[in-house]
Specification:
Elements (H helix, E strand, L loop, with lengths): L8 H9 L8 H10 L5 E7 L11 E8 L2 E9 L4 H5 L9 H5 L11 E2 L5 E6 L13 H21 L5 H10 L4 H21 L1
Antiparallel strand pairs: 1-2, 2-3, 3-5, 4-5
Length: about 200
């Protein structure tokens, strides 16, 4: 049901070789170097553009040689929660790492947040990729996957996210079907924004 892993390591590292040179802030460069294995050599810094959800966020990569191969670490700008922004919050403290390492998570040992709470540091590799459902999976299985993702997301917040109890109280008050209605409203707003941008 999943798409075949057609990404060959050679293709991945060829793409990495094409990353443009960049000079991150000293703090970010130091954090990237610290995230590499101790005996990594010939470190070079680059910028990186990937995916659609993070476009516009600064991303830097540190590429180094280590024990006969290459290793790659990325620093990506950590954006404050939209929830905090929407509710007039001023806090610059992020709960990202607490949620990522929470009770119902399988923590990634390479995932870190910079001391300034402004960048996520993580390992990137040819064999680290998202599992994508192919067209043959059908909408029924995709719906099941979305439901499982919803349960997973809810469990993260239920396991100690700030304000989780308030969210639970709010959810109990909402009528059946409110989320579908809100999603349709959001889709309409995004389409309007896109048309305005395109015009």
């Amino acid at each position: 049901m999943t798409l075949a892993a057609d990404d060959k390591p050679e293709k991945f590292w060829k793409e990495v070789a094409g990353y443009p040179k960049a000079v991150p802030l000293r703090k970010i460069a130091d954090a990237l170097i610290a995230s590499l294995p101790e005996d990594a050599e010939d470190v070079r810094f680059c910028s990186r553009v990937k995916g659609g959800g993070s476009l516009g966020r600064p991303r830097f990569a540190a590429i180094a040689f280590w024990r006969g191969g290459q290793v790659l670490r990325e620093a990506k700008a950590l954006v404050p929660s939209a929830w905090t922004w929407a509710h007039g919050g001023k806090s610059q403290t992020s709960s990202f790492l607490d949620l990522a390492n929470g009770k119902y998570r399988a923590p990634d040992p390479f995932l870190k947040v910079s001391d300034s709470d402004r960048f996520i540091l993580r390992r990137i590799a040819a064999d680290s990729r998202k599992i994508e459902l192919g067209d043959d999976a059908g909408w029924g299985r995709k719906a099941n996957l979305f439901e499982a993702m919803g349960f997973d997301l809810a469990s993260i917040h239920a396991a100690g996210a700030p304000g989780a109890s308030a969210l639970w109280v709010d959810l109990k008050k909402r009528p059946h079907g409110w989320l579908n209605a809100a999603a349709k409203t959001a889709v309409a707003a995004v389409k309007r924004d896109f048309e305005e941008w395109r015009n």
